[in-house]
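## retry 2 of 3
previous attempt timed out at serialization; input unchanged, resubmitting
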Amino acid sequence: MPVHRSIHALDESLSRLCNLSHVQRSKNSLLSTDEQVSSTYISSTGSSTFESLPVELQIEIFDHCSPVYPKLSKQAFPLPLLEVCKGWRALITSTPRLWSSFEIEIKGPPVNTFEYDMNILAALEMWLKRSRSYPLSGSLPDMRSARILEMLVSHSDRWKHAHIIVPNICLAVAQSLVSHRFPSLLSLTLQTNGPWEPEVPFDIHSLGAPWSQLTSLDLQPDYNHLLTLDDLLWILSEAVNLKSCTLGADCILSADARKIDCIHRPALEDLKIVFQGGLNSGNGERPEQYMVDFLTLLMLPSIRSFQIEWLVQWNGIGGLDSWSPIHQSQFASFLRHIGNTVETLGLIYLPLGKDDVLQCIKHVPNVKLLDIRSSFAEERNDPVTDDFFRALTVNSSALNSRSSTASLPALQEISLMCNGGSYHPATLLTMIQSRRESGKQLKKVHLITMTSVPDVVYESLNLFKMDGLDVTIDTINIR
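## retry succeeded, writing output
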């Protein structure tokens, strides 16, 4: 078949298959006998357009239409497609890849669920059987069933991607699952939630995860089982091949941990850290001191995305309205060390002053996506100011030259959440207009604020939208 006909058939098949509800509604009309397919898929030559594609392309189309983790049920993908025709059934049931991903969805409390659990168990058994020896990927939001756990563990040698969200009451079960041998595991997500179970500790050191082979890790225990910054340093020292990492921890760092050698992670490209706690600092040191000491122990020469979320409370002397100048300077120094490679920067709820944010963005000139969020109640130190937008504005004298004095010249997307009382909408519009006129690749602007915006501003935004810019301003009213 000529290439252009294959591409046309591929596009046609994708558009039909991606809507599974259409397949389910039409399956009765698609079949009159096992050998006959609906005229929807019959070309003028009398052969099926889809079946004329190479088998490899047919499998790619089916795989493209599948959810990342199909929820196990009687209508889970790819079960509806088995009823379309005998050819599809034969191809799908003999393709292990299409059965290698799934999500086990648990409904309701862990009581009186025997029949539902048995149905899930039967579906899981079918998926595991048909996936044969293909590497497994799964989302497991509840580990209450011992039989389901036993079945999953029996295939531990095949697990490639595991996404586990476990209630605290089942934390011991989840830890026993991860402690088994997983020679193929590349990505692990482990999160906890629900009522606190004080008798079930969370010991990261005895978890037994295959740290050295992981390339992706998302580890966010709930508030009552927080890791410490010491734990995070240990994980990063063990997980030598990480490319993407999201970690949550109590913002506490021991004196011994500060004495270790720097941890060099040349493969790490995406790092997000959620700092929490801070109520039990012990010696009275401020949490931001622990944070900057922690960050200075990291060497990240290939980091492309860096996000930091600050959910810390502090019981020390003087409160914590904003970071001290020395800690702000140390944090800016860290950004300077990673600034040449960072393209995505997220500063979420950091108690930085107005000028501190301007200093931060000066150190990351290659950022394409900027996400800054502050509390709606933060009016005095709101980081989104007229000076902030002026710093991002391209000077009119530079519009006809390749040089620019504006910060973040590569910026493509900007997302802001703020009180909104420290800037004038005209300054925002000027910044956007200067970027558009200068040919800068600004593609998306999203602002969430508590301050109402005049109608004339929305009229200007509509003009930007007509010019292809994705721009929205959402106003939150709290009564």
